[in-house]
Specification:
The structure holds 2 protein chains of 2 kinds.
Chain A (H helix, E strand, L loop, with lengths): L1 E6 L17 E6 L5 E5 L9 H11 L2 E6 L4 H9 L3 E4 L5 H9 L4
Parallel strand pairs in A: 1-4, 4-5
Antiparallel strand pairs in A: 1-2, 2-3
Helix pairs in contact in A: 1-2
Chain B lengths: L1 E6 L7 H11 L3 E5 L7 H5 L2 E16 L9 H5 L5 E3 L5 E3 L9 H5 L5 E16 L2 E8 L7 H17 L4 E5 L6 H7 L4 E6 L3 H16 L3 E7 L5 H14 L2 E6 L4 H8 L3 H4 L3 H18 L8 H11 L1
Parallel strand pairs in B: 1-8, 1-9, 2-7, 2-8, 9-10, 10-11
Antiparallel strand pairs in B: 3-6, 4-5, 6-7
Helix pairs in contact in B: 1-11, 5-6, 7-8, 11-12
The chains are: A alpha/beta, B alpha/beta.
Chain lengths: 106, 310
């Protein structure tokens, strides 16, 4: 299964990005292979609609769970419709959040 | 570092008047004017601009007149009536009407449409007597956007981190749209200032949904509460029902208009009921930010106690 975490930088030890739609990077973590893929958010330069676009982006990447600090109303709507599970957190590094998810403590 | 935002739902309820006064009270703070459609915090804080940079906004369609065959397909699909034909039967774009949705670029059989970013305005780093300030100015006809709000806020944040500031005060945009969502992201506390009118009540209720979505602690301030005590108490009841703090009630005074005309934050202009009410808002929200709510004491009672002590 693929889980997605928003990150401020391209490193597993970077702080998670509190934003979803305008985050710097999406991190896709495969729970079976334990591989991570960092993808720069392609929509940060857009004037609006980034919540919806970010939602579509992570859905297209096959994520089943998305982990971020907060989700805006439009992003939540998209992710809900696609049946994606949303998990929130109050800060930490990407590595810590992956661990927290694996330990069911999110 | 704490980020406090001031928003309103309804426009014209006193966001900037309150923000400018809070700016004089917040020690070691950075200010961000995110109401870029009608930025006016600079009128009261009168900062000196130290850096100005161009800001690229959304995209607009640009049509290559050599490739365009005048088939009109783009005209048929444009929902903003931004396209028309010139005398030579070449499609032209009305830059003000174009929303940058790219539909014309998808249907054009000749690939004559390209999307280009337009300069939407400038953003500034400034110094005021009360601290550094980030703000922006749009070119007439350009819109505020989540992107621009994020730009102003991110610049404020990096400045606050660099200079070890304790507060970021965000003067937010009205409404519940994209710029408001961007203004709310990452806030530690949001003050919603409203007025005792039916639309003040309605728009508070509407913006509350967005605030709850972001799980931000919120406090309601009723400006000019004494002009309509009945609606003011309805708003107070609504705040309670929403689970929001009651952060203060500011009485009406004609002096407020005069202070604005002179370009002075109200608290620096007069010492009266209005300035005391604003001071109480600042103290109250700090209590809410740094202390847990105490037992059965409602926030509204706390405010009364404070006023009696004074």
């Amino acid at each position: 299964m693929i889980i997605c975490i928003t990150s401020q930088e391209e490193s597993i030890d970077a702080q998670a990005d509190p934003r979803f739609g305008r985050c710097a990077y999406f991190v896709f973590y495969n729970t079976e292979t334990e591989e991570t893929e960092f993808v720069r958010n392609p929509n940060t330069e857009d004037a609006g609609g980034v919540g919806v676009k970010a939602g579509q982006f992570v859905i297209d990447k096959g994520a089943e769970v998305v982990i971020s600090h907060k989700f805006g109303p439009n992003a939540e709507n998209v992710l809900n419709t696609a049946g994606i599970e949303m998990k929130t957190h109050d800060g930490g590094t990407v590595r810590e959040l992956i661990e927290a998810y694996r330990n069911n403590s999110l | 570092m704490k980020q406090v935002g001031i928003i309103s739902g309804k426009g014209g309820t006193g966001k900037t008047v309150l923000t400018a006064s809070l700016a004089t009270l917040a020690e070691n703070a950075v200010f961000a004017d995110c109401d870029v459609d009608a930025s006016d915090l600079h009128l009261l804080l009168q900062p000196k601009v130290t850096t100005a940079e161009d800001f690229a906004g959304g995209e607009e369609a640009v049509i290559d007149p050599v490739l365009c065959t005048g088939c009109r397909e783009c005209l048929d699909v444009c929902r903003f009536d931004a396209l028309s034909m010139n005398e030579e039967s070449v499609a032209i774009v009305d830059s003000y009407a174009c929303e940058g949705c790219r539909t014309c670029s998808l249907v054009c059989p000749e690939n004559a449409v390209s999307m280009q970013r337009k300069t939407a305005g400038q953003w500034f780093r400034s110094e005021s007597s009360y601290g550094p300030m980030l703000h922006a100015r749009l070119i007439p006809g350009e819109d505020n956007s989540g992107k621009l709000v994020t730009k102003v806020k991110n610049e404020a944040k990096s400045l606050a981190v660099e200079k070890n500031k304790d507060w970021i005060l965000v003067d937010g945009p009205p409404g519940i749209g994209c710029p408001v969502l961007s203004a709310l992201a990452e806030l530690d506390y949001v003050i919603v200032i409203t007025e005792p009118t039916p639309s003040g009540y309605h728009d508070l209720n509407r913006v509350a949904e967005v605030i709850k979505q972001f799980r931000i602690r919120a406090g309601v301030v009723i400006n000019k509460h004494d002009l309509n005590p009945e609606t003011a108490s309805e708003i107070e009841a609504l705040a309670g029902k929403l689970g929001f703090d009651m952060a203060g009630k500011i009485p009406f005074s004609r002096n407020v208009g005069e202070a604005i005309r002179q370009g002075v934050p109200y608290i620096k202009y007069a010492e009266d009921e209005v300035s005391r009410a604003i001071l109480s808002v600042w103290e109250t929200i700090q209590d809410f930010l740094f202390e847990e709510r105490v037992g059965a004491d409602t926030p509204a009672n706390n405010i009364n106690t404070k006023e009696q002590e004074r």
